[in-house]
Amino acid sequence: MLKSIGTLVSAGLITIIGFSFVSPEEDTNMTGLDFNPVSAAEFLSDPAVHYKTYCAGCHGEKMDMFVDRQWKHGNTKEDIFKSVKFGHENEGMPAFGASLSDKEINALANYILEGIKHVDKYTDNEKPVSDLFKTAEMNIRLELVAEGMDIPWAMAFLPGQEMLVTDRNGKFYRVKSDKTLQSISGAPEALSRGQGGLMDVILDPDFVQNKRIYLSYSKFKNEGAAVLATTAIMQAKLEGNALTEQKDIFVAEPWSRTQHHYGSRMQFGKDGYLYFSVGERGNEKVNPQEIKGNDLGKVHRIKSDGSIPADNPFLKTPGAEASIYNYGHRNPQGMTIHPETGKIWTNEHGPRGGDEINIEEPGKNYGWPVITYGINYNGKPISNLTAKPGMVQPVHYWIPSIGPSGLAFVTGDKYKNWKGNLLSGSLRFKFLQRSVLKGNKVVKEEILFKNIGRVRDVRMSPDGFIYISVESPGRVYRLVPVDK
Questions:
Q1: How far apart are CA 67 and CA 116, in angstroms?
Q2: Which of 52, 256, 400, 425 could join 406 in a cystine, given CB atoms 3.0 to 4.6 angstroms apart?
Q3: Spatial distance between the Cα atoms of 349 and 10, rounded to a whole number of angstroms
Q4: Which helix (H) or strand (E) holds 232?
Q5: What percent of the chain stands above pLDDT 70?
């Protein structure tokens, strides 16, 4: 667990003379009168400092990332104490009983247990017993709008109280006002494997006149014995219960054999251009940081016909993909527009820890995988950096990972005290996350409808209600405020 402490205790004592241990989100201006350096004794007695100094190199900078794992040797205080004191030599875990006192090991064990409690608050499996839920601000009834789907990946609202719903298995539905499902023909043939399939759907801003919609999906082709796939955007015309005039206006390069991290969320901006995410397809060592000949791990911006806006940030960069708006992303699966500023906001999946909320700015590098607040699924760090000059810090990050999918700002007056809040679906813990913002900072969060199902999408409808879609069984709910 800890780095070899025989040399690091003395190194740590030397280090504190010239350096202070401050996390990237803390104030790094140390020149004020209130700054008081800690003594060596105080330094060595602080379990948080012990963790950062001796554990973080192997287990990640954030202790919450470390504890979000399967514990091979047990996670009680006694188990942790034994692991630290006696080690597990055959697995590369040294013993520290000769270097740390029992009191210090106990303090470190208590510190880790606090992190385990933080993770555990997400993980109980108690199922809802009613469609009525009490929240901090109001009571909400979940009204069933549609069912009979598998993974309803996205929703779009039609005139006349109807809606479109994509099912990741490739089926495409109109939900009629009487809550029945009507199949729509002509959807693209998608590779419904892994995380792929038929994904997002949005309407053209001029839908009433032109009847155009846009679908994102996992496009595939055969190359010898291999099946390759990529993220594609199709434009089509909705005529009755059929799509016509289908054409792909974007196909991401390069294609990949992997079947995950497609991204695929779309949003029209106030500028009339189409913004969308493309995941890095699991190849984080190459794709997210490469802008030349590489569309993966990016947010893109195009015109509705697939052509490129004249002010795209990399349009004049030799070799760069002209559609790229920014880069350094892992797998953004939520995208929305701020109702006041018009900025595009996203949420995206980190690895184990480090899911993010971001504001998408032109030409910026969002850091993956050079900087991250997450660790790998095997418990090993991906990077020792959470911040680096020239790379954008997230507005907010989650530890542990909630698996965010879908994103919406609350607008209108139907939801008292929620106006301006940001809603994210949680796939991992099966709830809706409400984030309270002050400016661009998350100042409070509330878990809503815990264990309702993997929340895949959340949208504000033109009727002023919030809708969510959940998976397996696939259902769509309307959030109806109820007087207390």
A1: 6
A2: 425
A3: 39
A4: strand 226-239
A5: 87
Give the separation between CA 120 and CA 88, rounded to whole angstroms. 25
Query: Measured between alpha carbons, how far is residue 319 from residues 61, 88, 363 in Å?
Result: 36, 50, 15
Query: Residue 66's beta-bridge partner residues?
Result: none
Q: Is the pLDDT of residue 25 over 50?
A: no
Contacts 24+ apart (CB under 8 A), 102-109: 104/44, 104/45, 104/47, 104/50, 105/81, 106/77, 106/81, 107/45, 107/47, 107/50, 108/47, 108/50, 108/51, 108/80, 108/84, 109/77, 109/80, 109/81, 109/84
Q: Is the dihedral of CA 58, 62, 67, 68 positive or negative?
A: negative
| 3-class state of residue 153 by DSSP | strand
User: 323, 300 in Cβ contact below 8 A?
Assistant: yes
Interior angle at CA 401, CA 257 and CA 432, nearest 5: 105
Backbone angles phi, psi at 18, to 5 degrees: -105, -15
Query: Which residue from 247, 14, 51, 155 is spatially nearest to 462, judged by alpha carbons?
Result: 155
User: Which amino acid belongs to residue 356?
Assistant: E
Dihedral sign for Cα 430, 421, 161, 344, please.
negative
CA distance 252 to 227: 15
List pLDDT tens digits, range 217-257: 999 999 999 999 999 999 999 999 999 999 999 999 999 99
**Parallel, antiparallel or unpaired: strands 181-183 and 198-203:** unpaired
Of the chain, the end-to-end C-alpha distance in Å amounts to: 50
Residues in the chain: 484
Within 7-138, strands assigned E span: 132-134
In angstroms, rounded to a whole number, what is the distance separating the alpha carbons of residues 379 and 70? 9
Which residue from 331, 334, 353 is spatially nearest to 432, judged by alpha carbons?
Answer: 334
261 is catalytic: yes
Residue of 50, 59, 261, 300 marked active site: 261
pLDDT tens-digit profile of 261-293? 999 999 999 999 999 999 999 999 999 999 999
Report how far residue 325's alpha carbon sits from residue 361's, in angstroms, rounded to the nearest whole number. 8
Read off the amino acid at residue 158.
L
Buried b / exposed e across 398-415, counting CB within 10 Å, b at 16+? bbbbbbbbbbbbbbeebb
Quote the tokens at residue 135. Answer: 């929240």
At 83, is the secondary structure helix, strand, or coil?
helix
Q: Hey, how many other C-beta atoms are within 10 angstroms of the C-beta on 266?
A: 21
What is the DSSP code (8-state) at residue 88? Answer: B
What is the token pair recorded at 309?
A: 């806006």
Q: Would you state the structure tokens that stand for residue 93, as one six-digit string?
A: 């875990």
What's the chain's Rg over C-alpha atoms? 24
CA angle 103, 104, 109 (to 5 degrees): 95
| Tokens encoding 357 | 């909320």
Contacts of residue 76, Cβ cutoff 8 Å, sequence gap at least 6 = none
Instruction: Tell the burial category of 27 from Cβ atoms under 10 Å away from its Cβ (0-12, 13-18, 19+).
Output: exposed
For the entire predicted model, the pTM comes to 0.83
Joined together, the tokens standing for residue 119 give 């993770």
